[in-house]
């Protein structure tokens, strides 16, 4: 066996509830930061600092300039970065000698991620928490604004609003560290119940990878409810169906209708389901970072991600599974293909689902796979790479069911079969 790389990621979450303290404050307990609506000055205790932007109110929410909020909370200027291509701001701060924290958020994106990274020998331990905000950050004249509490509370501070004087007040709260006991308490308080933790071990290019993923129980329950509705849909009368649709949140209703209206074998709605896609998007980013560390180009990054999906248990189910369920419980060709397509779509790959209809096999099951488009310069010098062409684009065949299939390798049984190509946007 070749080199061994141990990559451990502990805790990749989507929390559906409020977010508490994750990082111990850098200041003493007497810290008091004040922003005043409409004033180009903020105060740290009694010291005033000038800004080239001013806080403002919008729809009853107070927005403060992110850069100056970060300064006030002891984030150094060189640790604040802006990616104009993606509209993402990253804040970094070192809390311990061997650990540092990142806060990532994007303009017009209602999710914020807090990541703790610790390097210990050959292992990297990453604690990543992603949670929803009720408003998205705004980009105005080159400055990013957002309500102060999201970043401040992520860094362990308390935020309050004083109506008199229209002041946003930030004060230091009690330190909280990420010891095992506290992590368990955090999981319970954020999700309302203990989240589900699973460990994965797989091999790729002579390296062994270990990944520990945590899925909130609320997301699993959400998926179970959706899948139960789909299982029971055909048993409902027209009145019951209409009543059920009226009772569902708009995003859930949109998913359900898109599934019911899609042709048989078109599982694109399952890839795009909002709650699961948000969750797998953050998982995909961690896979991308590891692939970058290994020096993989886009072809081998996709194959590396494929190797993880192939390692999940193969379990046949009549209906497809949503991505988070497949991560927890495994799945068959359709469920694994949905998961892989979700990962790759989140990373900007041009992807299609490939359906081999049951009549191609003379049975009632058929087969599902993934097709991935590449620039010819990204392709390796392999003897043959199988692909399906659709509207002038080549989608290279990707088998998700079991380990060992390289990207572009195709089972002999399928090589003379016709596939229906369903591109993702």
UniProtKB/TrEMBL annotation:
Any one Pfam family match given in the protein's UniProt record, by short name: Cu_amine_oxidN1
SUPFAM superfamilies in the record: Copper amine oxidase, domain N
Signal sequence bounds: none
Copper amine oxidase-like N-terminal domain segment(s): 44-170
Xref: InterPro entries: Cu_amine_oxidase-like_N, Mao_N_sf
Protein name, as recorded: Copper amine oxidase N-terminal domain-containing protein
Source species: Thermanaeromonas toyohensis ToBE
Taxonomic path: Bacteria, Bacillati, Bacillota, Clostridia, Neomoorellales
């Amino acid at each position: 066996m070749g080199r061994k790389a141990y990559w451990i990621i502990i805790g990749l979450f989507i929390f559906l509830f409020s977010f508490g303290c994750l990082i111990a404050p850098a200041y003493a307990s007497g810290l008091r930061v004040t922003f005043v609506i409409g004033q180009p000055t903020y105060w740290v205790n009694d010291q005033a600092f000038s800004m080239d932007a001013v806080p403002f109110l919008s729809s009853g929410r107070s927005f403060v300039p992110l850069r100056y909020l970060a300064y006030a909370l002891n984030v150094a200027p060189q640790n604040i970065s802006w990616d104009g291509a993606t509209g993402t701001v990253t804040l970094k701060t070192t809390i311990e000698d061997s650990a540092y924290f990142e806060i990532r958020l994007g303009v017009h994106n209602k999710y914020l991620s807090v990541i703790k990274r610790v390097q210990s020998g050959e292992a990297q331990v990453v604690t990543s928490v992603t949670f929803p905000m009720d408003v998205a950050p705004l980009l105005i004249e080159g400055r990013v604004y957002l309500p102060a509490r999201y970043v401040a509370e992520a860094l362990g501070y308390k935020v309050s609003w004083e109506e008199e004087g229209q002041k946003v007040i930030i004060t230091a709260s009690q330190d909280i560290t990420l010891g095992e006991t506290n992590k368990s308490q955090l999981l319970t308080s954020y999700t309302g119940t203990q989240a589900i933790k699973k460990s994965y071990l797989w091999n790729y290019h002579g390296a062994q990878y270990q990944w520990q993923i945590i899925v909130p129980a609320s997301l699993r329950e959400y998926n179970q409810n959706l899948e139960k509705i789909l299982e029971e849909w055909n048993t409902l009368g027209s009145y019951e169906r209409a009543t059920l649709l009226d009772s569902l949140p708009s995003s859930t209703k949109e998913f359900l209708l898109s599934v019911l209206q899609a042709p048989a074998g078109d599982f694109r709605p399952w890839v795009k389901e909002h709650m699961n896609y948000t969750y797998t998007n953050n998982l995909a980013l961690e896979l991308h970072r590891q692939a970058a560390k290994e020096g993989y180009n886009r072809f081998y990054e996709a194959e590396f991600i494929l190797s993880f999906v192939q390692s999940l248990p193969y379990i046949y189910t009549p209906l497809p599974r949503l991505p988070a369920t497949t991560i927890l419980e495994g799945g068959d060709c359709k469920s694994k293909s949905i998961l892989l397509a979700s990962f790759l779509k989140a990373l900007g790959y041009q992807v299609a689902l490939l359906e081999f209809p049951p009549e191609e096999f003379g049975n009632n099951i058929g087969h599902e796979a993934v097709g991935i488009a590449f620039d010819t310069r990204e392709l390796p010098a392999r003897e043959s790479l199988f692909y399906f062409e659709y509207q002038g684009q080549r989608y290279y065949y990707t088998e998700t069911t079991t380990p060992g299939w390289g990207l572009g390798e195709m089972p002999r049984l399928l090589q003379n079969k016709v596939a229906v190509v369903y591109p993702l946007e």
